[in-house]
Every structure is written in structure tokens, then in C-alpha cells.
User: Which sequence fits this backbone?
């Protein structure tokens, strides 16, 4: 028999090769996910509120003109911190290395810095960024981003890299993303690959690649939306999430429903859990036009917030199965809300 | 309970289409961009080469360790990307890192005693696959690499050549001879 099939799958199929392909394909890294259990115990972490940070800042000790360490409570594992010079990441060159321990904070000021996150990834810090290492454990690595911009590139299993901000907690679900925090505590999450969970006080967003999630102090994460959504769509979501009176919100919902593309089902699905009453019904009906729900789902069940039904509809959005992120939502709600400093 | 990596996340990390042009020029563009800190480009490199790295590691180290090692290899590659002189050589260069990482892993794991299969309890659905994999792992390097990439990762011979830098002729010979040796090792028949 010719070995064409073994070579490039042309020609007459070789039954032996076909059997081996079927058998060994189960070992491929992209095979369907096994059932994922509940996450393990969280690493013991110290709660560092903003008051503690402020106190630490008062004892700041400068280690260079362009960067500064603040806080000195070092415990447990440390991460490698590389200070970089250059006017861009492309030109950045390492000038100094040090260690960042749990309980320590840094300000990059005019420098860039690269933080090796144990063996699970890397974080790049832009100038004018203040960040603290809250926990560096076997189960969970936890940073606190007070202000500035960080780029995370994480290879760890989902749920092991967590970043606290003043208004929401970002949980890595296997991805690359950029997180910015303004002086007032508001933030923007931009996901470049994979997923990030964004949560505060039970309000959760799942932000996939190409999407953005805003967050505001006291409000938590807004409704995620794709970056290429229309400006009117994004602006209307902002009104629904963060402000406006009843009339303004009603008009904003009109705009959202009118502007929504099939891809924006991501946002509408989130709105199902964030709106209530008539508004929720309107979102349901528009989403059903864009992405018909499975036959077993009922409007009544969706409007009642039936989680299984919501998950089943999510699975129709072509965003990956809900079971790939649902197990990781459990620990978010126990994330320290005190990180908001309130 | 130890957390497990969900391979579904691999699917979720897929990015948009690769840059247009020939595979060679697209690769050079991706490598160059990744070297300049473009994480999307590095993501595309990961999407394209992760199966190769996974296969090369799977041919050499215990399966439970492979996913973590794939990540380590890419992290190591990211750190060293500046030292890669010819972008077109990214595949062979990455393959070398993967093989070296597998060797390091064996050195570090020298004292670890693996459980024999007969204490593994109830038959696992992957038992047959792991048995065949064990037979492949006992083949010479060139044969086990190409067989794992072809039979496990689902790459064709031309794809294996393109990713690893081997000539198509070498890959074809390795597949042919490797398959002969595997058939012999399995007693002339393949498991069903």
C-alpha cells in the first residue's frame, strides 16, 4: 500500500494509520476539555487596602531617579523584577534586576518594568504605574494595580492570576490583556487573547479577545463589548452601566438594541443579567433575533435568570462553551471586595 | 484539589487571520513583530507552533507534564527571541528549545518514580493511546517526533517539514520507517 495517506492524507486511507489517528488524537492538547473540578483553596493572601498602600507610600524609598519601591513587608515567594530603559517596548533594554516580594509595592515613574510572574507568565508595567504583589502562591498569584497600565501575558491554568483594582478584580482565564487604572479608580480592560473575568460585588463580566470592559468605582465592571462595536453602541452601554436617569437609560437601551450586530450578542447576553423587568424582556427578544436560543429554552426561564438556560444560550454564541469559564466564576465572589477601599 | 488546565482555553486563545502573503514572509513578519513586543504576533506564533512543541515534548516526557512544559518552552522562547538571528528559522529554533527542555526535565525528574501501570486502577479511556504512545517513545528520536506530530497532533508530512525545518524527504522517510517500526513494536497490528 502507498504511504500517501500517511504522508499527507491523500490516496487510499491506510486503516492502521486511521485507527492510530483516532486513538492518539485523544492525546492532542486541543482535545475537548475534561470535566474541571472546583478550584482549589486560595492561597493565603494579605488584604492590602488603599489605606495600607497610602501608609506604605509615606515610607517610600527611592532606588533610582526613574523608579521607586514603596512598602517593605516581604514575605514568602518573590518575583523577578527587571527595570527597563528606552522610549518604547521595542527599544527597552534591561538595566537592573531585583526581586519583588509579597507585600511590596513599586512605582515605575518614568521607567518601564517587566515582572516575571513565577513560572506562569509575565507582566509588563508602563511608566506611571503603581502595583503591589499581594500573594505569590502555588495556587494563586495576586497583584494589586493602583494606577497606571499593565500588560499581562499569562500561561497558567485559568484562575491562577488575579489582579485587584480599586473598582473590580480581574481573573485571568488563560490570556493576554491590558489593564489600565486611572487616578479616580476607574479602569479599562482590553483583552488581546483568551478571556478575562472582571468582577465586583457579584457583578461579573466575561471579556473575550477583542473586547473591552470598563469599570467604575462603586459600580464595578460594565457590560463588555467588542472594540469594533459602533460608537453609538458603546456610548449607550456606558449610560446603561454607569449613569443617566431612567429616560436616558431607556433611550440608551433603544440605541443598544438598534445598533447590536450578531457579534454584539456578547453584550446582550450580559445585559440579560444586569437589567430587569421590561428592559430584560426587550434584551431577550433582540438577542433571540440575533442568536436564536436552543429549543429547550423558554423566555420565562431566561427572564427569571435561570442559570442553566443562560449558560445554554451562551453556548450558542460561538464564544466557547460556558463550562470552560463557569468553574472559575466561583472564587470571584469571594474576592476581597475590600480591595475597592470602601 | 489541584487545578487543571482546560484545553478549551487553547481554542479560546486563537486570534484573527494571519498576515497575508507567503507562509515564509508571514512567519518573518510575526517573528519580527513578536521580537518587538507585539503580543498578538506572539499569540499567532503560539497558535501555529504549539502543536509542534506539544508533540515534541509528548514524544519525550510523561504526558501529565507536557502542557506545563509547552508553556515553559514558549516563555523561554519569548525571553530569547532577541537572540534568534533569522526569523525563518523560528520553527527549528523553537523545536531545539523544546527538545532541550525535555532533556532538562528528565535530569530534574531523575529521582521521581512513576507508578507502574498495574496500580493505576480502573482502565482509563486513554489507556490504549498511552500504550501506543509508550511504544512510540521507545523509537529513535527522528521517528518518534514525526510519528507523534503526524498521529497525535494531526499534522501532515509537509506541515511537519515546514514547522520543524526538516526536509520533506526526511520527514517522509521518517514517517515510513517509523510506521514500520511501530507496527512491529505493536505486534503487527494496531489497537482498536
Assistant:
Amino acid at each position: 500500500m502507498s504511504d500517501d495517506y500517511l504522508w499527507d492524507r491523500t490516496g487510499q486511507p491506510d486503516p492502521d494509520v486511521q485507527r492510530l489517528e483516532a486513538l492518539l488524537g485523544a492525546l492532542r492538547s486541543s482535545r475537548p476539555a475534561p470535566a474541571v473540578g472546583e478550584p482549589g483553596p486560595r492561597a493565603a493572601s494579605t488584604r492590602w487596602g488603599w489605606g495600607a498602600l497610602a501608609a506604605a507610600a509615606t515610607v517610600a524609598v527611592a532606588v533610582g531617579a526613574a523608579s521607586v519601591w514603596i512598602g517593605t513587608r516581604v514575605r514568602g515567594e518573590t518575583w523577578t523584577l527587571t527595570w527597563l530603559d528606552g522610549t518604547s517596548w521595542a527599544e527597552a533594554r534591561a538595566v537592573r534586576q531585583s526581586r519583588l516580594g509579597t507585600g511590596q509595592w513599586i512605582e515605575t515613574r518614568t521607567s518601564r518594568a517587566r515582572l516575571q510572574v513565577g513560572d506562569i507568565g509575565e507582566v509588563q508595567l508602563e511608566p506611571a504605574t503603581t502595583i503591589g504583589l499581594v500573594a505569590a502562591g502555588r495556587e494563586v498569584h495576586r497583584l494589586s494595580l493602583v494606577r497606571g497600565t499593565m500588560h499581562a501575558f499569562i500561561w497558567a491554568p485559568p484562575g491562577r492570576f488575579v489582579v485587584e483594582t480599586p473598582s473590580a478584580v480581574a481573573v485571568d482565564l488563560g490570556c493576554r490583556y491590558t489593564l489600565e487604572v486611572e487616578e479616580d479608580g476607574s479602569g479599562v480592560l482590553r483583552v488581546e487573547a483568551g478571556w478575562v473575568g472582571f468582577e465586583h460585588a457579584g457583578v461579573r463580566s466575561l471579556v473575550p479577545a477583542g473586547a473591552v470592559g470598563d469599570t467604575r468605582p462603586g459600580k464595578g465592571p460594565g457590560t463588555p463589548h467588542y472594540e469594533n462595536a459602533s460608537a453609538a453602541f458603546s456610548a449607550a452601554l456606558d449610560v446603561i452601566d454607569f449613569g443617566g436617569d431612567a429616560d436616558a437609560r431607556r433611550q440608551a437601551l433603544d440605541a443598544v438594541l438598534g445598533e447590536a450586530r450578531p457579534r454584539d450578542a456578547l453584550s446582550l447576553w450580559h445585559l440579560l443579567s444586569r437589567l430587569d423587568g421590561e428592559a430584560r424582556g426587550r434584551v431577550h427578544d433582540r438577542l433571540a433575533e440575533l442568536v436564536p436560543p436552543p429549543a429547550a429554552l423558554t423566555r420565562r426561564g431566561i427572564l427569571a435568570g435561570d442559570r442553566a438556560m443562560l449558560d445554554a444560550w451562551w453556548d450558542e454564541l460561538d464564544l466557547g462553551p460556558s463550562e470552560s469559564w463557569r468553574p472559575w466564576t466561583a472564587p470571584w465572589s469571594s474576592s476581597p471586595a475590600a480591595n475597592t477601599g470602601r | 484539589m489541584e487545578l487543571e488546565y482546560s484545553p478549551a482555553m487553547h481554542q479560546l486563545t486563537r486570534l484573527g487571520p494571519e498576515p497575508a502573503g507567503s507562509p515564509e514572509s508571514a512567519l518573518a513578519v510575526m517573528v519580527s513583530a513578536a521580537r518587538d513586543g507585539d503580543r498578538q504576533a506572539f499569540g499567532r506564533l503560539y497558535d501555529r507552533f504549539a502543536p509542534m512543541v506539544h508533540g515534541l515534548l509528548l514524544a519525550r516526557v510523561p504526558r501529565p507534564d507536557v502542557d506545563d512544559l509547552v508553556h515553559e518552552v514558549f516563555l523561554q522562547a519569548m525571553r530569547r527571541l532577541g537572540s534568534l538571528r533569522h526569523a525563518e528559522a523560528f520553527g527549528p529554533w523553537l523545536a531545539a528549545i523544546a527538545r532541550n527542555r525535555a532533556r532538562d526535565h528528565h535530569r530534574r525528574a531523575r529521582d521521581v518514580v512513576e507508578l507502574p501501570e498495574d496500580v493505576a486502577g480502573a482502565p482509563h479511556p486513554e489507556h490504549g493511546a498511552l500504550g501506543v504512545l509508550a511504544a512510540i517513545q521507545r523509537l529513535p528520536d527522528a521517528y518518534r517526533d514525526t510519528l507523534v506530530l503526524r498521529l497525535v497532533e494531526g499534522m501532515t508530512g509537509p506541515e511537519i517539514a515546514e514547522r520543524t525545518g526538516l526536509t520533506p524527504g526526511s520527514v517522509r522517510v521518517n514517517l515510513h520507517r517509523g510506521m514500520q517500526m511501530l507496527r512491529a513494536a505493536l505486534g503487527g497490528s494496531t489497537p482498536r
Q: What stands out?
A: The first helix of chain A runs from residue 4 to 8.
